[in-house]
Each structure stands twice: as structure tokens, then as C-alpha cells.
């Protein structure tokens, strides 16, 4: 069944303590190539049948209202993934 | 600066109560097109300069050891995103 993937990240100006903690842990574990880390969320919405333009519009609306908090987060990607 | 995006999802056999709660909320808000929802994590690792094969290998190792819990999660994607 096709899925719609929605990616949500904190807005760039919002502090991300979880990402900061990971950025601090990486060099301690020997991974020294990364300047910064930010953590966001990924949602997979399963659709039965075909992903129509109407369903995609619904997914974009759901992403903007339920899956993200528009005050502090950006929806950075909404895309269809077929299996 | 280029970023490496790492996507982590719970393994299919692991229950996802957060995704289930979202799947229940969607139709109540008028979004009736989705059969199921699963929530995962997305990480953005910022790299200074070019993303070499060595840095990408480091990102894959970090994804498998620090960014995911291999007992319950799968790393579903590691990719380079240029700005």
C-alpha cells in the first residue's frame, strides 16, 4: 500500500536540546565529522488504493494542523512513497 | 552546508501508540483517507565542507548505534541533502 511521508523539523530559530545532546555524544563515540545535529519527526500515513491529489491535499492539511505545531515547527517535506 | 538526513522508524512488529493516537485523531478532524499512521524520527547532521564516502560511512554507523535502538528500530534512510 502506498504511504505518504511527512517530515517535521523544529524551526531553525527554536533550540533543540535533544539534537544538541546528540551532537555532544557523537564525538565522544568517535564520530567527529558533524558540526550540528537537529532532531525532528517523521510520519508515515498509509493509504489504501491510489494517492489522489485530494488525498495528498488532506495529508498536507493534516501535516500543518495535527502533525506539526506551526508555532515552533516546519513541515519540511510531504511525499508519496510506493512499496 | 550539506546535511545528512537519517530516518528512523519503529520496526513494523513494534506497537506505536503515538502513531495509533494520531490515526484515531485524524478522522475526528475530518481527515478520513488514512488507514494507519506510524511516527518515527528524523535527524539532520550538518557537515562542514564536502560529504565524503568516509563521512557517509560514519553517519551510517552513528545511525545504527546512537541514533536508533536496533532492538526496536530500523534506520530506513540515510541520504545527503545539499542546500
From TrEMBL, chains A, B:
- Origin superkingdom: Bacteria
Give this protein's Gene Ontology molecular function annotations: ATP binding; phosphoribosylformylglycinamidine synthase activity
E.C. number(s) listed in UniProt: 6.3.5.3
Looking at the keywords, is ATP-binding present?
yes
HAMAP family in the record: PurS
Entry-linked PANTHER family: PHOSPHORIBOSYLFORMYLGLYCINAMIDINE SYNTHASE SUBUNIT PURS
Subunit structure, as described in the record: Part of the FGAM synthase complex composed of 1 PurL, 1 PurQ and 2 PurS subunits.
Protein name as it appears in the record: Phosphoribosylformylglycinamidine synthase subunit PurS
Protein species of origin: Glutamicibacter creatinolyticus
UniProt lineage: Bacteria, Bacillati, Actinomycetota, Actinomycetes, Micrococcales
Amino acid at each position: 500500500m502506498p504511504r505518504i511521508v511527512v517530515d517535521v523539523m523544529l524551526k531553525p530559530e527554536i533550540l533543540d536540546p535533544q539534537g544538541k545532546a546528540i551532537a555532544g555524544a557523537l564525538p565522544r563515540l568517535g564520530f567527529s565529522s558533524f558540526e550540528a545535529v537537529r532532531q525532528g519527526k517523521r510520519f508515515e500515513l498509509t493509504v489504501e488504493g491510489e494517492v489522489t491529489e485530494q488525498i495528498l491535499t488532506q495529508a498536507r492539511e493534516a501535516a500543518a494542523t495535527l502533525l506539526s505545531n506551526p508555532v515552533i515547527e516546519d513541515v519540511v517535506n510531504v511525499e508519496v512513497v510506493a512499496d
